[in-house]
Structure formats: structure tokens, C-alpha cells
């Protein structure tokens, strides 16, 4: 295995790979879930839009459909101002002779929607006519007859529109266009057309006899049978004659039914029943060059061999306004407009009306861009991400701690083994020399004994630091707080470490600016902290030109005691000012010094236990190292 797969580097690479897999998989799942949620949201919004469109179109169709359906079922005869019903009875109960009873068209005074401008009937030979546009003679006769029929729909505006339609729309083109629009099988109706024939005076309905015959002759059964048979043959001959002369039978097309009121040579008109084929009413746009588009509602009619159209001219501008207002109700589509559907440009089926060639343009839709908010899916994804990140953090922290612990153990074993070997080797060598009698000089023996004593102290401090660090790692030590005076504390530290400074060729200088200050603390722990700082100053400033080590005490204005240990050594490099406070970390220097890197780590932890802190700052002359122990001053009770 390559070296960069081992240790912290390899662990870090493995952690990055695992994190990439977890984050990548979770990110893909999150993206897929959010896309699915957005698709569902879009589908719901589209469903709401479609539902609103259906509701709006239903309202639009409901606004015009009843009137249009009524017009679709209107009989053929209503398109003539005067017509004779195919069958009628006298008050005596006897059947009236066809053509003897006339009826005015309901379109003369019927209540019609404002958007129905004109009812018309058109064929190639007769041109344009309307039951709502009467000639002067017909209007005068209706007025003279004093019938109770309001002529509210007979207006100059309709007469003007009929004249304009006659000049703008070609009849043959319109009839041919309507013939192509049939969408259902045609229906059949019966109408009575006026005619002029000499047979009229002798005409009798089939199976009937005249009143004179009933009153002037003896009506035995055999005679009546012969008389009715003769009348039936006479009627059939008359019908054949009139069907051969369709020009006479259909002459009332041009006169709007006025022929029924005009006697022929002093004789009344007679009528002939004709079957009429009615196609369905269909809406269409009729466009003439240089003329405005017309919206028509028309049907194809076949009377004998003649083809004609009956229909209505609709007011497109008024319809557009009414339908748009209906679509805007209840803020359904505030910006809605109505647009025509031309032939050859089909409208989207979901926006087209059913009864008219119009479509709804909903306009600018108010899109809700606020997002779905805190949906259960998003909350679940956030919790999943939080759990995954916490798990990765825990794994990373645990792995890093294990690797760090492993490295610390390796450094600890290496440092302790090195530090133990030096004093043990010195002790064993000097003891062997003394025990073997190799040293005879008493002065030399004294020096050897002094060296053995120093190495034993060094070994004792090393073992003590290791044991103290082990206790701090496993449990929180119990503090023994006692009152102490700052001057007494400094004197105790000086007496304990004066000899160590002298052995390192250093001079310990005590400066006390808070001599009379008394406070409560764990005196033994404070002495251990200051002792470690003084020992480090002796080791790391061994070759300094200035041999002084200063131990200072002062109080700042915030009731804190500051204890400083300063030397004139090479100081601590900037890059190492944080790492030297970690366990088993030692600062690099040009000289080789002993130790395992536990002194400052122990001092830092002891300072925290006392409620204070240990920090590094620059010396008075910007050289050497100055460590400050800041302690809270607890007043005496």
C-alpha cells in the first residue's frame, strides 16, 4: 500500500470518498423527489386551470345555448311574416280549407336577445328577405286588420341591415357554404304554399263534402260514397297540376307571405301542402372582401327542388363583450377575452365553445410562484440531510479522533521511551561506576551523586506529568481551594524552583506588584502550572545571552490576577503558537531539549479547571517568550 493511503491522509481520502457517495446518492434522491413534487404541483395547477376553463366554457355556452337551441327548433313558417298553417279548425269543429286561415310570424314581436340582430331567409331566385322587414302594403294591411300582434322587431335598423346584407353577401355562395355544414340528419316539416288556380273553387279536402251537398240532397250511404270518391279524384288532379307549376306554388317566397292577403282575380288563394327538409342550425363566419366579418347562425332548407337558407345575423361585438364579462365573473379569468375561430385554424378543444365558433383566451394567468412551502416531503428531506450530515460528521470526527489518538499514542510511546532511556542510561552508568569502585575521588563521587539526583528529579517529573495527564484524561480532578496571599505563593514557587534554575544556569527574578492581595484558589495546582512554565523557560532559553527568568504578579482593573513567566530565549514561532498547547506537541528549536510535550497541555487544562486561562504573548523587549496565567480573584469570606 502506498504511503499516502496510510495515516490521516488516507483516512481523510477515505472519508471524502464515503462523503461523496453519501452526498451524491442523497442529492440525486432529493433532486428526483423535488422534481416529482414539482411535476405533481404543475399537474395540480394544470388540473385547476382545466377545471376553471371547463367551468368558464360551461357558463359561456349556458349564456347563449338556450336561445340558439330555441332557434334551431323554430318552424320553417316563422320566417315568413304571414303564413297559413297546414291544418286548422273552425270553432264548429270542422276542418278549415287550407289557406283560409292565416297567422302572423312570432318573430314580428317575440322577445329576442339583443345579440340577435336579424332573422332572414334567402334563396337564389328571391334574394334576401326577413319576416322583420315588411313592405308598406303589408304593414298597412296588418295595421288595418287591428290584430293583437306587437311589431316591436320591425325596426329601421333591421331593414338597413337587410339591405346591407343583400349588397355584401352573395346568395349562391352562402347557400353552397351552408349546405356543407350539416352535422346531423335533416328534419322534415310541412308548410302551406299559396297558389292561384281555377280548381280552387271546387277544391275539397280528401274524404270531405261541401256544406251545400250536405244540406241540399238526400244523403244515403251509397250516394255519399260516390260523391266522396269523385272529390278525391278531383283533389289528386289538382295537386298534380300545382306540383308541375312550382313557380306558382313557391311564388310567396318573394312577397314574405303577402300573397295570402292578395286575392287572385277576385278569388281567394288556395294552399298546397309541401314537405320541407330542414337542416341543423350551424354557426359560421362569413367573410366578404372589403366587408366586416359576419357571424351567422343558419340552416339549409330544401323545398321541392329549391334550396334556400334560413338564419340569424348575430352581433359579434356585443357577444364578445357579454361572453368576456361572463368569463371574468368571480375572478375566474380576470384578463379573459373572446376570439373567433376561423375556418382552417382550429382552436384548442379545451378552450373552444360548443355552440359558437369562438374560443376563450384566459389572458395572463396569475401564477403562484411562492412554491409548495414546507411540505411533508421537504421536511422529510431536510431531516434526512440533517441525519446524513450529522452521521458523516460523527464518522469523520470519530475517525479523526481515532487517528489522532493513534498518532498521540505513537508520539507518546516514542517520546516517553526516549525521555526514559536518557535518565535511566545515566543512572545505570553512574551507579555501575560507583558500585564497581571505579570512582575513588570523593569530589567526583559528589558530582556523580548530584547528577544522579538531577536525573532522578527529571525522571520523577516525567512520570508525574504522565500520571497527571492520564488522570485529566479519565476524570476531573477535585480542587482543594484555600486562601493564599500572592507574596506567599510567589515565595513558595521561588524556593521550589530556584535550584532548577541554578542548575540550568538561570537566575529566577520575582517581581510582585500585588503583594498584599489575598484570594482563594488551589495553591498546589497554581504551583504546578508555574513550575511547568519555569521548567520550559530553563530548557528552551538555555543558550540565551540574558540568563534571567522573570516571575511577575500584578492585578488588572477587572479583579483578575495575572502571573507571568518570561525568558529571553528564541521565543515561539508564529506558526507554532497554537500547536504547542496540544498534548505531545513540542515546538521546534535549534537546540535539542528533553520532554514529551505534556507541560503546556497540562498547564492549559489546569488553568481551565481554576476558572482562568493560559496564553502566550510577546516579551517586554519583543524577544523570548512570555506566558500569562490569568486567574479570577475570589474574595475571602
Entry keywords:
alpha+beta; Heat Shock Protein 90; 637 residues; 7-stranded antiparallel β-sheet; 3 domains; 13 helices; 18 strands
Secondary-structure map:
Blueprint lengths: L6 H66 L9 E2 L19 E2 L11 E8 L3 E3 L6 H10 L10 H13 L2 H9 L7 E9 L15 H6 L4 H24 L1 H4 L20 E9 L3 E5 L7 E10 L2 E9 L1 H13 L8 E4 L17 E4 L14 H60 L6 H33 L7 E4 H18 L3 E6 L5 E4 L1 H18 L7 E8 L4 E7 L32 H11 L3 E5 L8 E7 L5
Parallel strand pairs: 13-15
Antiparallel strand pairs: 1-2, 3-4, 3-9, 5-6, 6-8, 7-8, 8-9, 10-11, 12-14, 15-16, 16-18, 17-18
Helix pairs in contact: 1-9, 9-10, 10-13, 11-12, 12-13
Description of the molecule:
The chain has 637 residues and is an alpha+beta fold. It has three domains: 3-59 and 368-404; 74-314, no CATH class; 478-637, 2-Layer Sandwich (Heat Shock Protein 90). 45% of the residues lie in helices and 17% in strands. It is built from 13 helices and 18 strands. The chain has helices at 7-72, 136-145, 156-168, 171-179, 211-216, 221-244, 246-249, 316-328, 376-435, 442-474, 486-503, 523-540, 599-609; strands spanning 82-83, 103-104, 116-123, 127-129, 187-195, 270-278, 282-286, 294-303, 306-314, 337-340, 358-361, 482-485, 507-512, 518-521, 548-555, 560-566, 613-617, 626-632. The strands form five sheets. Strands 3, 4, 5, 6, 7, 8 and 9 form a seven-stranded antiparallel sheet that branches. A five-stranded mixed sheet has the order 13-15-16-18-17, with helices on one face. Strand 15 and strand 16 (560-566) form a beta hairpin. Helix 9 (376-435) packs antiparallel against helix 10 (442-474) and helix 11 runs parallel beside helix 12. The model is unreliable at 196-219 and 240-250 (pLDDT under 50).
Amino acid at each position: 500500500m502506498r504511503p499516502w493511503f496510510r495515516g490521516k491522509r488516507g483516512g481523510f481520502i477515505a472519508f471524502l470518498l464515503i462523503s461523496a457517495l453519501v452526498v451524491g446518492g442523497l442529492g440525486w434522491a432529493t433532486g428526483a423527489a423535488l422534481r416529482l413534487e414539482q411535476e405533481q404541483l404543475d399537474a395540480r395547477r394544470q388540473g385547476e386551470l382545466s377545471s376553471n376553463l371547463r367551468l368558464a366554457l360551461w357558463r359561456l355556452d349556458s349564456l347563449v345555448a338556450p336561445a340558439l337551441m330555441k332557434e334551431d327548433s323554430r318552424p320553417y313558417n316563422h320566417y315568413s311574416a304571414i303564413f297559413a298553417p297546414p291544418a286548422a279548425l273552425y270553432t264548429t269543429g270542422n276542418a278549415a280549407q287550407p289557406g283560409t286561415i292565416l297567422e302572423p310570424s312570432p318573430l314580428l314581436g317575440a322577445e329576442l336577445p339583443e345579440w340577435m340582430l336579424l332573422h332572414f331567409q334567402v334563396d337564389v331566385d328571391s334574394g334576401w328577405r326577413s319576416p322583420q322587414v315588411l313592405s308598406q302594403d303589408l304593414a298597412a294591411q296588418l295595421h288595418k286588420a287591428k290584430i293583437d300582434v306587437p311589431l316591436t322587431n320591425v325596426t329601421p335598423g333591421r331593414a338597413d341591415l337587410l339591405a346591407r346584407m343583400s349588397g355584401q353577401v352573395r346568395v349562391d355562395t352562402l347557400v353552397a357554404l351552408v349546405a356543407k355544414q350539416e352535422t346531423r340528419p335533416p328534419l322534415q316539416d310541412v308548410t302551406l304554399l299559396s297558389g292561384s288556380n281555377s280548381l280552387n273553387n271546387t277544391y275539397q279536402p280528401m274524404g270531405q263534402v261541401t256544406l251545400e251537398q250536405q244540406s241540399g240532397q238526400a244523403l244515403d250511404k251509397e250516394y255519399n260514397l260516390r260523391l266522396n270518391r269523385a272529390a278525391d279524384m278531383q283533389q289528386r288532379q289538382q295537386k298534380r297540376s300545382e306540383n308541375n307549376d312550382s313557380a306558382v306554388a313557391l311564388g310567396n317566397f318573394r312577397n314574405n307571405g303577402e300573397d295570402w292577403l292578395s286575392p287572385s282575380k277576385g278569388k281567394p288563394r288556395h294552399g298546397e301542402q309541401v314537405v320541407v327538409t330542414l337542416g341543423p342550425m350551424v354557426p359560421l363566419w362569413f367573410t366578404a372582401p372589403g366587408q366586416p366579418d359576419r357571424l351567422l347562425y343558419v340552416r339549409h332548407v330544401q323545398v321541392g327542388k329549391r334550396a334556400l337558407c334560413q338564419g340569424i345575423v348575430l352581433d359579434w361585438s356585443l357577444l364578445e363583450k357579454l361572453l368576456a364579462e361572463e368569463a371574468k365573473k368571480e375572478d375566474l379569468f380576470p384578463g379573459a377575452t373572446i376570439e373567433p375561430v376561423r375556418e382552417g385554424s382550429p382552436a384548442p378543444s379545451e378552450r373552444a365553445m360548443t355552440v359558437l365558433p369562438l374560443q376563450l383566451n384566459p389572458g395572463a394567468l396569475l401564477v403562484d410562484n411562492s412554491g409548495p412551502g414546507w411540505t411533508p416531503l421537504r421536511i422529510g428531506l431536510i431531516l434526512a440531510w440533517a441525519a446524513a450530515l450529522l452521521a458523516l460528521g460523527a464518522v469523520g470526527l470519530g475517525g479523526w479522533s481515532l487517528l489522532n489518538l493513534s498518532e498521540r499514542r505513537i508520539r507518546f510511546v516514542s517520546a516517553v521511551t526516549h525521555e526514559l532511556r536518557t535518565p535511566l542510561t545515566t543512572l545505570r552508568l553512574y551507579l555501575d561506576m560507583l558500585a564497581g569502585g571505579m570512582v575513588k575521588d570523593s569530589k567526583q563521587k559528589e558530582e556523580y551523586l548530584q547528577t544522579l539526583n538531577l536525573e532522578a528529579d527529571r525522571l520523577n517529573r516525567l512520570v508525574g506529568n504522565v500520571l497527571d495527564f492520564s488522570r485529566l484524561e479519565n476524570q476531573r480532578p477535585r480542587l482543594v481551594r484555600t486562601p493564599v496571599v500572592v507574596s506567599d505563593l510567589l515565595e513558595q514557587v521561588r524556593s521550589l524552583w530556584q535550584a532548577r534554575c541554578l542548575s540550568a544556569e538561570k537566575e529566577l527574578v520575582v517581581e510582585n506588584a500585588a503583594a498584599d492581595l489575598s484570594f482563594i484558589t488551589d495553591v498546589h495546582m497554581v504551583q504546578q502550572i508555574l513550575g511547568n512554565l519555569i521548567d520550559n523557560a530553563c530548557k528552551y532559553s538555555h543558550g540565551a545571552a540574558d540568563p534571567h527568568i522573570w516571575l511577575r504578579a500584578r492585578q488588572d482593573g477587572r479583579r483578575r490576577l495575572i502571573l507571568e513567566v518570561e525568558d529571553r530565549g528564541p521565543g515561539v514561532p508564529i506558526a507554532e503558537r497554537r500547536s504547542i498547547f496540544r498534548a505531545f506537541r513540542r515546538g521546534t528549536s535549534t537546540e535539542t531539549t528533553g520532554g514529551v510535550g505534556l507541560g503546556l497541555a497540562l498547564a492549559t487544562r489546569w488553568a481551565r479547571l481554576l476558572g482562568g486561562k493560559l496564553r502566550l504573548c510577546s516579551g517586554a523587549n519583543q524577544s523570548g517568550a512570555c506566558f500569562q496565567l490569568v486567574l479570577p480573584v475570589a474574595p475571602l469570606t
